[in-house]
Each structure stands twice: as C-alpha cells, then as structure tokens.
Amino acid sequence: MNSLNMNHIDVILDSVYRPEKVTDVCKSVDPIILRSWKRCVTHFNMEPSATRGARVLTHQELLDYRTPVEDFIHIAKSGLKELHKQVAALDYVILLTDKHGITVEYIGNEKYDKQLRASGLYLGSDWNEMHAGTCGVGICATEMQPVTAHHTDHFDVINTALTCSAAPIYDPAGQPLAVLDVSSLNSPSNKQSQHLLLEIVKLYAQIIESANFLHHYNKSHWIIRFGSLEEYVNVNAPNMIAIDEAGTIEGINSSARFFLNPNTSWQDKSWDEMIGKNITSYFDCSLEEITSNTPGHRSCIKPVKLNHLENKIYFSSTTPLNSKYIFTQNSQSPQQQTESFSAEDLTSSLSDLAGTDHEMQKSIKLAKKLLNSNINFLIQGETGSGKEVFAKAIHNESARRKGPFVAVNCAAIPESLIESELFGYKPGSFTGARSKGSQGLIQQSSGGTLFLDEIGDMPLNLQTRLLRVLSEQEVMPLGSDKTVSVDLNVISASHRSIETMIHNGDFREDLYFRLAGATLRLSPLRERQDKDYIINRIMIMESSNADIKIDDDVIDLLCKYHWPGNIRELRNILRVTFAFSDKNTITRDDLPEQFIAKLLYSQNSEHHTQRPVQNINSDALLDPKVEYIVTSLKKNKWNITDTASELNISRATIYRKMKKYNIVPPNNLDC
Questions:
Q1: In the β-sheet with 377-380, what is the strand arrangement from edge to edge?
Q2: What is the pTM of this model?
C-alpha cells in the first residue's frame, strides 16, 4: 500500500480513536465527514485499510428496489436529463438512488462506461454507508443533508479519486424518498471546486421534489406556494403546502417545512405535527382570503404575514385540477361564475376546443353525436395536439361524467409494470407488490371513462388481454382466479398510424375494431385556422393578470410559426412569456429569445418546406397508408429515415409508395 493511502488511513484512525492527538489535517475534516467516519468504524466495524470495491446488485435485486419508486423515477427523469445537460461537458454522471442508497436511475457517458461500472457509478450500485463507507450518497441517505464527499473524504481508499455531491429528496408526506447525486472519476484536488456543483444539485433535487409533490396533490388539493419575493412566487417559489377545501394541511414539502420551522432538522418529529393543522395556524388571514382568486384564473399573488414571524411573505393559491373554483363572494354574476373554472375546466366542453377550424368542428360534431352511444373512440393526432383534453371533454359531456376519468399513458409505464397497473393484482403476486394488492386502472375506471393514451405502444401480449376485457366486460387481477365485472367505456389515442402497425403485425386488428368504433382526427396546430382562438384560451388559463392583452403583431407571429410541438409547445411558450412579463400588454420583446430564433429559422427555410407536393396519383385514395406517409414526410422535412422510424415501417416501403403514387419531395419538383 502506497504512502498516500497509508496517510489517508492514519487520518481516519487519528480522527476517530485519538482526538487528543488530532493533526492540522484532521482538524480540516468537515464535521459531517467525521461523523460518517465514526459510524463506519464504530457501527459498521469497517477497517480503513480494507478495500471493498463497488457493490452492484443483480437485475432481480435492482427490480425489488426500483419497482416501489417506479412512478417517482418517471417523474424525475426530465429533471435528471436537464441536470445532465448542465454537467455532461465535464464528464460528470448522474445517480438517482432510493432512500437506502441503491442507484435506481443513472445517466452517464458511454465512453467511460467500463471505468464507471468498475467504480460503482452505475445503475444498481449500492452506496449505502454500511457497504460503501463514507461517500456522498451514503452520508446524504443517513443524515438527509446536502453534502460533497471529495477525494480523501471517502472512507474506502479505492474511492479517493472520486468526487460526489448529493442532495436529499423527500416524499409528499415529508419522509426520506431519494438522493440525487452528481459524481466524477476525475476532478480538481481543491474541494471548493465542487461548491457550485453542490448548489446545482440542491436546486435540481428541489425541482424534482416539487414536481413529485404537485403530481401527488394538484388534482385533488389546493396548492399554496409562498416565498419572500413577490416576483418569484409563481415562477420559482420552492415552498409548497397542499390543503383540502376546509384548509387542513394534507402535505407540505421539505422547503416549506424548513421555512416555517427554520431551527429543525428532518429527524424532528414536530414536522409530522404540521400535517392535520389548519393553514390559518401559520398564515395570518382567513381561509376565504387564501382560497379566493381572480375570476378566470387559477392563482393570483397576495401578501400575508406568518403568525410566528414579523416579516411579510407572498403566496399564491392554485385550485385543484379536478374541481371548480371555490368562491366565497356571492356578488359574482352568472357569467363570472361560468368563467371561474380551473385551467382544465376551461376546455372541459367540446365546443370550447375549437373556433372556426372546419376539421376540428367536424370531429367535435361527430363526437357529440356518438358520445352516449357506447361506442369506443380512437383519437388520432400528432404529439401535443390535445388528444387527452379532447377525451376529457367527451367524458365531461357524456352520461358518464359523474364517474371517474382514468388516464393511462401506455408509453410511460414500463413494460414490466403495465400489466399490473392496468389489471391490478392480489397481495403477494410478485416481488415488490403492495401488501394489500392493487385494484388496477381498468377497474378504477368502471362506470366512467378509461383513456388509453399512446395505445400503439401497448405490448402485443397485453393487447390480447385487453381485447378479452373489452369483449367480456370483466377483468382478472394478477394472482387471482376470479374475474371482476366492470362497466367500461374506452377512449384510446395515438400519434402513430394504427393501420400501418396492423399491416406490420405490431397491433391486433380485432382489438383495433373494438377500439375504433369511431375515429376522430385532430389537426396539427400549424394546419388549424383558429390559432388566434387557441391563443386567447391559453392566455385565460395561464396568466395570473386578468387585464393582460397580447399585441396583434405578436398574435401574427404566433400564427405564422409551424409549431412542431403543437398546442403543448404553444402553451409552454405563453406560460414562460406570462411568467416573466410584468406588463399588461405582451409585445414581441416579451417572447422567449429561443422562440424568436426558431421562428426566424422557419421563415428563412419556408420556401423549401412550404412548396406544394406534386399532384399525387388518384389511385392513392384507395390506399389508407398514403395519407399518413405524406403527413409524416412533411413533418420530418422529407427525411425518409425519420419518417420510417416514426411510422415503424421500412424505408423500402416508403420509396415504393412514393414511386407508385408519384409522391415527389418539394425540392425535386423542378426535376
């Protein structure tokens, strides 16, 4: 063992066993690192001179840890990807572990895959202090505090080249849930070089925790956001409380807990006492003031004093997505009461989904005719075009509106879990199953509407089971030998061509006929004739300023853009614009720079992409695939490879269809 390793071992032993002889090196050790060293030696009986190496779980062991937090992982993924973009250039890797320190999600650099796996910076690695000794994840999982374990802070000499910055994530009930960690095989020797990185990790841990909190509560609870700065309450206020209609606190995130109890730690049981109290125990105002909002808006910012603090804070209250606004004033006109719905209710009526667009009005008319006829709908449209909103509107106007609307994204649920999620299971059906079993989403939707989004991504074996459920109107949970009767009405949706998938053997034709009693097609935003109507509807939903207006030239710019992300992209652009503008009128200068750049690019290339397609052979009308191929070719700017990938067909098939029906790309028309 070399002298550097011996010195590291001596520092640990001196710090733990001989504090009276502590050297200057020992004195410089962070207290949180020293506490971990002591736990390793005295609690876990670890020898500093012994090298343990990385402990990586088997695939089945990993599933046992990953399955209970699968929903959380799905919510966290977007945040992990954004964080990785910030640090990837410096070869950092992202680890998301559960509360035990087991890595359940990972983003790294394939170039260093072998070294990262050997060092334990990989999916399935165990960074629990009990097994890995002092490390960023291990300390964070134990003390639930942000920490950087840099080089010789690590207990095991084999890890002294690593740097790890970790921050805790709490569940909506305030209990430890996960640890977010950013690590590297190589970094500067000075620990201060990691200070900014730790702040970034803390920020993203907070973002992920907030996203999980909102996912858990925003459909059925009022969400109270608060902070010291008025300008940032609706933009970046980390403090959130979930209350019911009586004002009882049902959930409170970690940031809000520390804000209201600055002298406590997560181990302090007084945190638990906050749950069940009324919000007025902390906010010096009435429940009526907390839950009243500007008509037509889900939230507005108000000042308030906390009962135990002198300084003023600002808060906004957001209504539950699944209920209408609660107004305490009786002076509202019927028109105001009609406009006082949540963002989702503003589009709860089929008539609200379109202005003068002919194609949308045709789909709406068909939906209204058939919505109470027990016919299943298939909604086809590009990603972001509003398929789920359309499905919810059908449900809201149908005779089933008093029943549940259960939305399932077949592309978002891992293939290993989709069967148990849809059909439910009995206790002990598989490793990781809940002790009381689970009812299943199909059974939960009985009497209401089951919305199967991205139905084209459902595995073939489950398509067979779903077909039987639709035929027999009964479901059999996993691990059970008895069926349960259900009253089903199904609306499915896909951005893919189901007919093409059937042709390729990827989708059951008999299931298609069950699901597609009527097919509704939603036009992409770029083709719609009512963009100004959609812009005004979204403005009502997203702006907290009741008097806000948009310049005509801004509306003109928004209408000219090609909107590859459709209504979802438009909504995100307007949301950012409203959040950062403090004026009553939105001008071109308020639009995000990134959007302006994309708009200019699309205008400069317009003469390439907007030229008409050569007249297609009339025989094409007899081939149902041609419409989808041409639409996809336009969307992918006539890139054959991207089109083949999107439609899940071979490039040869596309070339054959183009040749057969005289489909010519715009830039080849002159030839």
A1: 405-409, 449-453, 490-494, 377-380, 518-521
A2: 0.50
